[in-house]
Amino acid sequence: MRAVAPVFQVYRLSADQPVWWRMVSPNGRGLARTVAPHATVDAAHVAIAVVRLRVDQLEASLRLTERARWRWTLCLDGQPLVESAGDLDRRVRCDHAWRNFVSLAPTASVDPVVHTFRIAGEPRLMSLRGSV
Prior knowledge:
Layout: E1 7-12, E2 20-24, E3 30-34, H1 41-54, E4 59-64, E5 70-76, E6 79-84, H2 91-104, E7 109-116
Parallel strand pairs: 1-7
Antiparallel strand pairs: 1-2, 2-3, 3-6, 4-5, 5-6
């Protein structure tokens, strides 16, 4: 069986919002995400390219959250670029997670589709086709 590589996705929360990127595993779980939003889709793609090309130069920092969970951040020249997609229960898992991202990022593909995710609790737009 051939392993499936993770993929970078570019997404926004609504049509008029800035864009973000994240890397997801083949089963759809988030592995990492950008620290800050990007003004355009092209800017997000450039940011992904920078991370992929300079991943070996990223410096990791791990921190304990207020809820006694662990998060990681990767910085380039002191500027935070990548962070964990979520909190982790143990420091050793946090350490493994950022190292896993660094090993997978250079070969991860980039999804060409820009995804739009609805914010929980936000009303959906209904189609009025067929209404009088």
